[in-house]
C-alpha cells in the first residue's frame, strides 16, 4: 500500500514501520485504503491502494525499465487481456510483467542475470502478481525448445531479440502478437527482417515520442525539458495460412 502525505510517499505492507521526518509511522496490520494514520508525533498520512502507475515509481530497479507510454502501446496494439498467456524476455525490473499480471495475464518471463531475476520476483510480490508471473532465470533463446508454445503475446526487450523473433511461429497461437522494444534503430531493423523471414503479418514499427505541455501567462507550448524519445516498438502477428 502507499502511505502518502503531500510529496512524501512510502510503499509499505500492513504491519510495517517507517521512520519519516514527521515521526515514526506504524501501519496497522488490518489497515484498509482510505484510512488516515498518524505518526507518533501526531502527523497524518493517508493510506492508498497501490495502482499500476505507482509501480513505475516504487518497484526496485535493476536498470532502465520500459516507460508507461511504451507499455500502454503494447497493451493497446495487442489487445492482451485477462486469461491470455504471455512470453517475455528481458525481465529487468519487471514493470512490463507486473502491468500484464495486473491485467490478469499469465506471464512467463526470462531474465539472464540471477540477481536481476531475484529482484524481479520480489517486485512481483510487491505488485501482487506473483501467482500470475513466473520469473525464470535464463536465456529465452536457450529455452525455446522446452516451451510448449500457444502464447497469445511474445514480448522482447533483449539484444538477441531477432533470434527469438525467428521462432515466433513456434511460440505464438494463431492470431497471437509479437511486440519488440529496442532503444536502437539498428536492432529494430534486424527484428523487422526476422519477422518478415518468419512469415509474420501486420509488421509495423513505431517510434515512441511524448512531449509535455507548458502553460503560463505568455502562452502554451511543448515543454523544452525532458526527453521525448524512448525507443522503437515493432509489432507483428502470427496469421498462419490454412490453405
From TrEMBL:
<dbReference type="GO" id="GO:0160107">
    <property type="term" value="F:tRNA (adenine(58)-N1)-methyltransferase activity"/>
</dbReference>
<dbReference type="InterPro" id="IPR014816">
    <property type="entry name" value="tRNA_MeTrfase_Gcd14"/>
</dbReference>
<keyword id="KW-0808">Transferase</keyword>
<dbReference type="GO" id="GO:0031515">
    <property type="term" value="C:tRNA (m1A) methyltransferase complex"/>
</dbReference>
<dbReference type="InterPro" id="IPR049470">
    <property type="entry name" value="TRM61_C"/>
</dbReference>
<keyword id="KW-0489">Methyltransferase</keyword>
<keyword id="KW-0949">S-adenosyl-L-methionine</keyword>
<dbReference type="InterPro" id="IPR020596">
    <property type="entry name" value="rRNA_Ade_Mease_Trfase_CS"/>
</dbReference>
<protein>
    <submittedName>
        <fullName>Methyltransferase domain-containing protein</fullName>
    </submittedName>
</protein>
<dbReference type="Pfam" id="PF08704">
    <property type="entry name" value="GCD14"/>
</dbReference>
<dbReference type="GO" id="GO:0000179">
    <property type="term" value="F:rRNA (adenine-N6,N6-)-dimethyltransferase activity"/>
</dbReference>
<feature type="domain" description="tRNA (adenine(58)-N(1))-methyltransferase catalytic subunit TRM61 C-terminal">
    <location>
        <begin position="68"/>
        <end position="214"/>
    </location>
</feature>
<dbReference type="InterPro" id="IPR029063">
    <property type="entry name" value="SAM-dependent_MTases_sf"/>
</dbReference>
<keyword id="KW-0819">tRNA processing</keyword>
<dbReference type="GO" id="GO:0030488">
    <property type="term" value="P:tRNA methylation"/>
</dbReference>
Amino acid at each position: 500500500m502507499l502511505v502518502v502525505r503531500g510529496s512524501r510517499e512510502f510503499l509499505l505492507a500492513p504491519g510495517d514501520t517507517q521512520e519519516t521526518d514527521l515521526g515514526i509511522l506504524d501501519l496497522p496490520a488490518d489497515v484498509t485504503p482510505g484510512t488516515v494514520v498518524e505518526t507518533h508525533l501526531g502527523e497524518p498520512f493517508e493510506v492508498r491502494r497501490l495502482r499500476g502507475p505507482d509501480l513505475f515509481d516504487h518497484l526496485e530497479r535493476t536498470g532502465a525499465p520500459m516507460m508507461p507510454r511504451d507499455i500502454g502501446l503494447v497493451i493497446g496494439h495487442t489487445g492482451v487481456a485477462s486469461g491470455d498467456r504471455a512470453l517475455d524476455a528481458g525481465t529487468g525490473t519487471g514493470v512490463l510483467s507486473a502491468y500484464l499480471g495486473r491485467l490478469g495475464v499469465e506471464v512467463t518471463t526470462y531474465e539472464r542475470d540471477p540477481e536481476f531475476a531475484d529482484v524481479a520476483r520480489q517486485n512481483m510480490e510487491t505488485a501482487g502478481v506473483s501467482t500470475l508471473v513466473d520469473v525464470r532465470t535464463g536465456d529465452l533463446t536457450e529455452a525455446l525448445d522446452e516451451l510448449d508454445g500457444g502464447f497469445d503475446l511474445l514480448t522482447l526487450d533483449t539484444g538477441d531479440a531477432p533470434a527469438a523473433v525467428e521462432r515466433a511461429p513456434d511460440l505464438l497461437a494463431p492470431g497471437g502478437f509479437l511486440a519488440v522494444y529496442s532503444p536502437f534503430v539498428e536492432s529494430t531493423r534486424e527484428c523487422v527482417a526476422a519477422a518478415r523471414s518468419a512469415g509474420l503479418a501486420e509488421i509495423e514499427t513505431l517510434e515512441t515520442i511524448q512531449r509535455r505541455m507548458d502553460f503560463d501567462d505568455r502562452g502554451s507550448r511543448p515543454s523544452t525539458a525532458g526527453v521525448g524519445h524512448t525507443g522503437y516498438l515493432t509489432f507483428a502477428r502470427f496469421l498462419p495460412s490454412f490453405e
